[in-house]
Amino acid sequence: MTHPLYALLEKLDDARIHYSLSRQRSGSVLVSVTVVGQRIEIDVFADGQMEVSRFIGHEDIEGGAELIDSIISLG
């Protein structure tokens, strides 16, 4: 039986959707997907459970280098 993580990656590969993998939480792998107008974070746990967060927004240019400074200063 294939782990759900591999099934997910195969679906994304078949759809030619770019993704990246990382570890942000203990016990899960984060699959980060960016498509037009959306950023999607999928946490896949060892037991196969998935938690999906989707962020929807526009892709308008909002500024230049000064915007980076203001975003960093908020953190």
Biggest sheet features: 4 strands, antiparallel
| Count of alpha/pi helices | 2
Which regions contain 5 or more consecutive residues with pLDDT less than 50?
none
| Main sheet strand line-up | 1-2-3-4
Q: Indicate how many domains the architecture comprises.
A: 1
Provide the succession of SSEs. HEEEEH
Q: How does this model look, in words?
A:
With 75 residues, the chain is of the alpha+beta class. The protein has one domain. Helices cover 28% and strands 36% of the residues. It has two helices and four strands. It has helices at 4-14, 65-74; strands at 19-22, 28-35, 38-45, 50-56. It has a four-stranded antiparallel sheet, with helices on one face. The mean pLDDT is 93.
Kindly list the characteristics that best describe this protein.
75 residues; alpha+beta; four-stranded antiparallel β-sheet; 4 strands
Provide a compact summary of the structure:
The chain has helices spanning 4-14, 65-74; strands at residues 19-22, 28-35, 38-45, 50-56. The chain is α+β, with helices and mostly antiparallel strands and 75 residues long.
Topology:
Elements: H1 4-14, E1 19-22, E2 28-35, E3 38-45, E4 50-56, H2 65-74
Antiparallel strand pairs: 1-2, 2-3, 3-4
